[in-house]
Write a structure and sequence with these properties.
The complex is a heterodimer of chains A (255) and B (350). Chain A starts with a strand and ends in a 10-residue tail after the last strand. In chain A, a hairpin with a 5-residue loop joins strand 13 and strand 14. Chain A is 31% helix and 24% strand. With 255 residues, chain A is an alpha/beta fold. In chain A, the strands form four sheets. Chain A has a six-stranded mixed β-sheet, with helices on both faces. A four-stranded antiparallel β-sheet of chain A has the order 4-1-6-7, with no helix packed on it. A two-stranded antiparallel ribbon of chain A has the order 2-3. Chain B is 76% helix and 0% strand. Chain B contains 14 helices and no strands. The longest helix of chain B is centred in the first third of the chain and has 35 residues. Classes of the chains: A alpha/beta (255), B mainly alpha (350). Chains A and B meet through strand 8, helix 2 and helix 3 of A and helix 1, helix 9 and helix 10 of B.
C-alpha cells in the first residue's frame, strides 16, 4: 500500500460554534504528521471527524478507493478504562471483527508478540482498571496498532506518559508507519515532541489549517508567539530538529 | 527482553477452562436447587411420590400427585428458571449499555409500566374489549404497557442521541409517570381489587402455568440468538463508549438492539409473575465475579445466576412459610439488600 490518503472535510462544528473551515488533507504512505494548536483550536474535533465520529460527512480515499470507518484507527483523548478486562483481552478487542465464539490461537500469539515488543508482557494478565493512566495509555496504543488500520489517528497519545515512554511511543508510531505504510496523524501539545517525530506539522489556529510543512519551516518564533502567546526560545537538537523552550512573554530571556 | 514464563495461549486456555468450570459448577448448583424446588411445597409429598408422578406423566393414575407435579410445581420451576434467566440477561445488557453497575432491567421504568398495565387489567378488565380469556388479560396488558414504556423512553432519548444519561433520565421520567398512574389506580380501587393489585406487584411464581411458560420461554429463546451476534461488541462496549466507537463499533445501533432485547426479556419475565426485584441487578455482578467481562461466558453466567437466585428464593419462600409460600419477589427484595451492599462495598473499576 503506497498510495496517499486524501481527506476532504466540510466545515466542522462543536455544538453550534464553527470550529474549522472546510479543508483537504493529504497524508502520504508511511508519513507521520503531527497536529498542533492552542487549546480550542479544533484538534480533537478534526480527528473525531476524520474517524467518522462526527455528524459532518467526511470523505476519505486511498488510491481513489473510499476508506471505511472501520479501517481508521483512532485513539481518543479521554482514554480511562474502568472495566476489569485483562490487558490481553483489551488488545485482542482491537480486532473484534475477527473474534468469534472461539478466538483463533494465531491472534492470541500475535497479540502476545505485540505486547512483548512494546515491553507490556508483564501486564498481559492484569485488569485494565488496575493499571495506572500511563500504563492504560500504552495498552490502548498497542490495541490500535494491533488493529492494523489504514490510517492511525491519535489524540494526545503521550499525555499520561513519562519522558521515557513518550519517546518510546513516538518512536513506535514512526516505526509502525514505516513498516505498514499507514500514515499516522497525532495531535500533541508538546511542540518539541511534535517537531522531533514528525515528517510534517499541521498548525490549527484561527479556525483553519494555518500552516502545513516540515517542523523547521512551521515552528517559527512569530507563529508560536502569535498563537500560543509565549516568548519561544528555539534551540536545535543533535539531529537539527527544533526544540522549543517556552517562556511567558514577561519572563522571556534577553539576548 | 524477558520471555513470558508461560505463553499467553496456554494461560488463555487455562483461564477459559477455569471460567468454563465455574459456569458448569453454577449450572450444577442450579440443577440441585431446581430438584429441591420440585420437592418443596405445602403438599407434604415425598420425593419418591413426586418421582413416580413425574414418570407417570400428566395423566398418571394418582390424580393429586399428577396435578401437583405437572400443573403446579413443574410449571412454577420452569417459570422461575425462565424469569430468572431473562432478568439476569436483561440486567447484564442494561449494565453494559448504560455503563452503570447499578443499572437493572427496572432502571428505565419497565416494572412500573408492567405494574400499571396489570393494575389496569385487574381494575377495568371487564371493560376492555380484548379477545382474551380473563386470566390472560393481566399479563397481556402488563406486557403491552412495558413495550409502551420502552417506546416512550426510546423516543424521548432519541431526541438527544440516546446517550446513557439521556436514557436513564428518560427512564426515570417514564417510571415516575407509570408509578403515579399505578398509585392513582390503587387509590381508586376497592379493597378487594387493591389486594389483587398488591399481590400481583409482589412478584410470585404462583401465577405460573404452561401458557406463561410457553410465552416467556419463547421470548427468551428468540432473544438468545440475537444476543450471540453481539457478544464481542458488548464486550467492546465495556471499554467505554469512546473506545468502542473509535474501534469502528456502531454504538447507537448496538444500544438500540440491546435496549429492545432487554425490554422484551423484561416484559416476558414480569408480565406473568409480577415485579421481581434485585435479580437483574445482582446476577450480572455474580456473572462478572465468575467469568470476568467476556460476554461469551458472561451472558450464560448471568442467565444461570439469575435463575439460581430466583429458584433459591422460591425454595426459601416455601421452606420459611410451609402453608402459603412467601412470594419470591419479597424474598429477593429482602435478600437483595445485603447482596447490593456487598456489591457496592467490594466494587472495583466499572
Amino acid at each position: 500500500m503506497n498510495a496517499a490518503i486524501e481527506i476532504t472535510l466540510p466545515a466542522l462544528h462543536r455544538g453550534r460554534a464553527r470550529v474549522l473551515a472546510p479543508c483537504r488533507l493529504h497524508l502520504a504512505a508511511g508519513e507521520v504528521v503531527t497536529l498542533i494548536g492552542p487549546n480550542g483550536a479544533g484538534k480533537s474535533t478534526l480527528l473525531q471527524a476524520i474517524a467518522g465520529l462526527s455528524p459532518e460527512p467526511v470523505r476519505l480515499t486511498l488510491g481513489g478507493r473510499a476508506v471505511a470507518r472501520g479501517e481508521v484507527g483512532f485513539l481518543p483523548q479521554a482514554f480511562a478504562v474502568r472495566a476489569a478486562l485483562s490487558v490481553l483481552d483489551c488488545v485482542l478487542l482491537g480486532r473484534r471483527e475477527a473474534l468469534g465464539m472461539r478466538v483463533p490461537p494465531l491472534l492470541i500469539a500475535e497479540a502476545e508478540a505485540l505486547l512483548h515488543r512494546l515491553g507490556l508482557s508483564e501486564l498481559a494478565d492484569r485488569a485494565m482498571h488496575d493499571l495506572s493512566g500511563g500504563q492504560q495509555q500504552r495498552v490502548l496504543i498497542a490495541q490500535r496498532l494491533f488493529r492494523r488500520p489504514k490510517l492511525l489517528l491519535l489524540d494526545e497519545p503521550t499525555s499520561a506518559l513519562d519522558l521515557h515512554h513518550q519517546l518510546e511511543a513516538m518512536a513506535l508510531l514512526r516505526a509502525h508507519a514505516a513498516a505498514t505504510c499507514a500514515p499516522v496523524l497525532a495531535a500533541l501539545h508538546d511542540l518539541s515532541l511534535a517537531a522531533r517525530y514528525a515528517d510534517r506539522v499541521l498548525v490549527l489556529a484561527e479556525g483553519r489549517i494555518e500552516a502545513d510543512g516540515p517542523p523547521e519551516a512551521v515552528l517559527t518564533p512569530d507563529r508560536l508567539s502569535r498563537h500560543w502567546r509565549i516568548a519561544p526560545e528555539i534551540l536545535r537538537a543533535r539531529d537539527d530538529k527544533p526544540v522549543i523552550v517556552p517562556h511567558l512573554p514577561a519572563c522571556a530571556p534577553s539576548g | 527482553m524477558t520471555a513470558l514464563p508461560v505463553p499467553a495461549l496456554d494461560r488463555w486456555r487455562a483461564r477459559a477452562a477455569r471460567q468454563g468450570a465455574a459456569v458448569l459448577i453454577a449450572a450444577l448448583v442450579l440443577a440441585a436447587f431446581a430438584l429441591l424446588d420440585l420437592m418443596t411445597g405445602p403438599s407434604g409429598m415425598t420425593p419418591g411420590a413426586l418421582w413416580h408422578a413425574a414418570l407417570a406423566g400428566p395423566e398418571g393414575a394418582d390424580r393429586a400427585a399428577a396435578t401437583i407435579f405437572w400443573q403446579i410445581r413443574l410449571p412454577q420451576l420452569c417459570m422461575g428458571l425462565i424469569v430468572g434467566a431473562s432478568l439476569g440477561l436483561a440486567g447484564l445488557l442494561m449494565q453494559t449499555i448504560l455503563a452503570n453497575p447499578l443499572a437493572s432491567p427496572f432502571t428505565l421504568g419497565f416494572s412500573a409500566a408492567a405494574g400499571f398495565g396489570a393494575a389496569l387489567a385487574i381494575m377495568g378488565g371487564t371493560l376492555i374489549p380484548l379477545p382474551l380469556p380473563g386470566w390472560l388479560l393481566t399479563p397481556a396488558l402488563a406486557f403491552a404497557a412495558t413495550l409502551a414504556a420502552t417506546a416512550l423512553v426510546w423516543l424521548v432519548a432519541r431526541a438527544r442521541g440516546t446517550a446513557p444519561e439521556t436514557l436513564v433520565l428518560a427512564g426515570i421520567a417514564v417510571m415516575f409517570f407509570f408509578q403515579s398512574a399505578q398509585s392513582l389506580m390503587q387509590f381508586m380501587a376497592s379493597p378487594e381489587v387493591l389486594a389483587q393489585i398488591v399481590f400481583w406487584l409482589f412478584g410470585s411464581l404462583l401465577k405460573a402455568n404452561w401458557v406463561a411458560v410457553t410465552v416467556s420461554g419463547t421470548i427468551l429463546l428468540v432473544c438468545l440468538p440475537l444476543l450471540v451476534r453481539d457478544l464481542w461488541a458488548l464486550t467492546s462496549l465495556r471499554l467505554g463508549e469512546a473506545h468502542a466507537a473509535s474501534l469502528g463499533l456502531d454504538v447507537a445501533a448496538l444500544r438500540r438492539r440491546a435496549f429492545l432485547i432487554t425490554a422484551l426479556l423484561t416484559a416476558g419475565a414480569v408480565s406473568f409473575t409480577g415485579t421481581i426485584g434485585f435479580v437483574g441487578l445482582i446476577a450480572p455482578h455474580v456473572a462478572r465475579a465468575l467469568v470476568g467481562e467476556d460476554h461469551r461466558l458472561g451472558l450464560p453466567a448471568a442467565a444461570i445466576a439469575g435463575a439460581l437466585i430466583l429458584i433459591a428464593a422460591s425454595v426459601t419462600g416455601k421452606v420459611l412459610s410451609q402453608g402459603a409460600a412467601i412470594p419470591v419477589g419479597i424474598v429477593t427484595a429482602v435478600a437483595g439488600v445485603p447482596m447490593l451492599l456487598a456489591v457496592i462495598l467490594t466494587k472495583k473499576g466499572g
